[in-house]
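sorry for the late reply, my laptop died twice this morning and i had to redo everyting from scratch. anyway the thing you sent over, i finally got around to it. pasting the sequence first so we're on the same page, its 420 residues, then the predicted structure underneath. double check i copied it right bc i was rushing
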Amino acid sequence: MGNALTQKILITLGFLFAYRVLAYIPTPGVDLGVIKDFFDNNSGNALGMANMFSGGAVQRLSIISLGIMPYITASIVMELLAATFPTLGQMKKERDGMQKYMQIIRYFTIFITVVQAIGVSMGLQSMTGSAGQSAVMIDPVTFTVLATFSMLTGTMLLMWIGEQITQKGIGNGISLIIFAGIVSGLPAAISNTIRAVNAGEMNFLLIIAILAVMLLTVFVIIYVELGERRVPISYSRKTIMQNQTKRVMNYIPVKVNLSGVIPPIFASAVLMFPLTVLQASSNKWLTAIADALAPGGLVFNIATFVLVVFFAFFYASIAFNAKDIADNLKRQGGFIPGVRPGEHTKEFLNEVASRLTGSGAIYLAIISTVPFAIISGMGASFYFGGVSVLIIVQVALDTMRKIEAQRTMNQYDTLGNVGL
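ok and here's the structure:
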């Protein structure tokens, strides 16, 4: 393993360790005992799922209890705006424009974080423990200001950590943060399940059924994620002669799931924002809506299914640029057999991508809802559901691919240095 790869892995692990340390730094002015009791009674609703994505930071009311979701929400809004307004879309394609684009996302993240932090602070002020003690131990106004600035600082630190991992480490920083949060809660989820079996609350055969659902889910995810359509490419004789010493790609790999892990993450972010706000409300109508949208329920699963399909098509249209591929092929003297270069190649690739995206979107939606619904019906934890397993397996596969690509690059660099 090359020094560059080792350094990138160590940087990634170092930043993830910093993220886990932040999850244990509480927001000033709260009674953590009251917060813990509240979450013990609400572990099966939207707050429990938000706690899963934050790696337990919500239950501890850490400074990163809002997690990376405000940044993801801001990114979703900006992607939608970029697809709607050509000027913003063009800004994203330019190097200098991309910096401005990312800066707008950061400012929008600050706005969303402040709104959510104020909402959480106000909700905590009406929370009481079993003995009637308040969850907030200081002046309400002072607490709101302190909590808002603490949570804003925590979210901005998470955003920075994610960007640093993406730039200097291995893999996508935001995905790895969510991955680390979910994985950190697995030991406790497994321990609680074993405790429930020992106490007679869960049947051992039920545990075997849960494991079977999880293993089947993992198998399907790996099978589909490794699947791709290879569109053959031919080159003119002149191009082949000019590139005798180079490896020329003779096909275009188009993955079945072009959008990766982004759709379920985006769908969860969109659902978590209103659910968290509704859960903090004392209004009976808003509470009824929150209960109807509780994770594992029919309405929640339908909403998740629709949102995952939407984001799968939306993100695939951004990730796969058929026009750029067609133009590059034409410049390199390559063509798809039976398809004319240029516009016809673009249309052909768009058709292939659309068919695969349709299959990939349905696959993502089913994996995100069906296993979760089955496991929730068995009384198991969020951590064993479809979205968490999907994120863990997909991020692990993506990170392994990037490590392998880095190793291959290091081998080519070594051979180049010795003159081979």
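Strands lie at 228-232, 234-235, 251-255, 334-335.
thats about all i looked at so far, will dig more tmrw
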